[in-house]
Write a structure and sequence with these properties.
binds 2,3-dihydroxy-5-OXO-hexanedioate; 3-stranded antiparallel β-sheet; about 15% strand; 7-stranded parallel β-sheet; binds magnesium ion; TIM Barrel
Length: about 425
């Protein structure tokens, strides 16, 4: 099963005006769909970011993979690493932590690795979760991922989610998501309004949904002192506090003085970050993300390492489509020590997808592991063509929440330890 050809297709899909510490989501979110085809005619799917510089790297790496066996994980990684060379991508979205060469290689490698596992599963009649050691749960719980948001993009009509700019709006959004998806835990993206206002929204969620695990993630917009104050004020309601303050040092300072575990997808985002974070006891929960931890097998290794050092696991999400949701679900299903509901942006995509409907569904806030071999999802070629055309005609080529926000508020500054 050697790689005969690789197709790389950038796509764009509608995204609501979700607010975060760096600005606001643009009307179009970008992703890249990767199809790996073997000499035997089997096709595997992968999905990754759509920013142009990353797309160029993925395309360049794809050209180097012809002839390699889909089983040759290390050889494939070496080809991708050689193709990426010494490149280092910095934190291009302002939300996912420091860059490194390894993180850059891992991010480029990930969609190819997922596609190869999809092929290996299809060839063996096994699900990707089986290839990762077998599922330890039949369905993967996800959290209701709430955002402060505008009613609609300023040049468009109100979207169906409406505005959420205060505690009532956030509770209404949670109610909608819980009604539609059955979520049994809630994450609030913070870092948008003053910390006390956001803490009030968390309290309102606690009152409206007693007993549901809650988290807030201000993406390092708070100083350590503010993080400690808010962390203690919310000590009785938070399951964990995600990236309150910047850096491993800042997080360690907070962790020592708040009652709950701190979680991160910002200060520990590549292997080099693990030893200092563990030594300084900066975090208690790592948000895995196979898109930048080098695919599913490498993420499983990181998960095992976290188990050794007593770190709990959750899962991070950017705006994504169904290939990623399937991959996340297989990985989470086969990760015994994943003990928190995963994040997903799926509700915000509101039915837009490149995979054919049916294989992925939410029941009680969880996604059952797709049953078919491999990832268990099929590409919807018509949808892919439509989304590729949207990519061609939209002007977004790189996610930039700050620039989009500045087009409405020229003085806007990304809020990194702002409060
Ligand atoms: O810190 C996080 O959980 C994220 O970075 C998730 C997403 O990127 C989210 O913040 C977003 O899309 O605005
Ligand atoms: Mg986060």
């Amino acid at each position: 099963m050697r790689i005969r050809e690789v197709h790389v297709t950038p796509v764009a899909f509608r995204d609501p005006p979700l607010l975060n510490a760096t600005g606001v989501h643009e009307p179009w979110a970008l992703r890249t769909v990767v199809e790996v085809v073997t000499d035997e005619g089997l096709t595997g799917l992968g999905e990754t970011y759509g920013d142009l510089s990353h797309l160029d790297r993925v395309r360049a790496a794809a050209r180097e993979l012809t002839g390699v066996s889909v089983h040759a994980h290390h050889a494939l990684y070496a080809r991708v690493a050689a193709s990426v060379g010494a490149d280092v991508v910095t934190d291009q979205h302002g939300l996912t932590g420091a860059g490194s060469n390894q993180k850059t290689v891992d991010a480029v490698f990930s969609p190819f690795e997922v596609a190869c596992l999809d092929i290996r599963g299809k060839a063996a009649g096994l699900r990707v979760a089986d290839l990762l050691g077998g599922p330890v749960r039949d369905a993967v719980p996800y959290s209701a991922y709430l955002f402060y948001k505008w009613a609609g993009h300023p040049d468009a009509k109100e979207d169906r989610f409406g505005a959420a700019l205060d505690p009532d709006g956030i509770v209404a959004q949670a109610r909608l998501f819980i009604e539609e998806y059955g979520f049994a835990s809630i994450k609030l993206k913070g870092g948008v309004f003053a910390p006390d206002e956001e803490a009030e929204a968390v309290r309102a969620l606690h009152d409206a949904f007693p007993g549901l695990p809650l988290r807030i993630d201000p993406n390092a917009a708070w100083t350590p002192a503010t993080s400690i104050r808010i962390g203690n004020a919310l000590g009785d309601v938070l399951e964990y506090l995600e990236d309150p303050a910047p850096g491993i040092g800042g997080m360690a300072e907070v962790a020592a003085r708040v009652p709950m575990r701190l979680a991160t997808n910002m200060c520990v985002v590549t292997h080099d970050h693990l030893p200092p974070a563990i030594a300084q006891r900066a975090i208690g929960v790592l948000l895995l993300d196979h898109h930048y931890w080098g695919g599913l097998l490498r993420s499983a290794q990181v998960a095992a390492l976290c188990g050794t050092f007593g770190l709990e696991l959750s899962m991070h999400s950017n705006s994504h489509l169904g290939i990623s949701l399937a991959a996340m679900t297989h990985l989470a299903a086969a990760t015994p020590n994943l003990n928190h509901a995963c994040d997903t942006h799926t509700p915000w995509q509101d039915g837009q997808d490149v995979v054919a409907p049916g294989a992925l569904r939410f029941t009680g806030g969880a996604v059952p592991v797709p049953e078919g071999p491999g990832l268990g999802v099929e590409l919807d070629r018509d949808a892919l063509a439509v989304m590729h055309e949207q990519y061609r005609t939209c002007t977004v080529r790189r996610r930039d929440d700050t620039a989009y926000m500045r087009s409405f508020d020229p003085d806007f500054q990304a809020k990194r330890a702002h409060w």
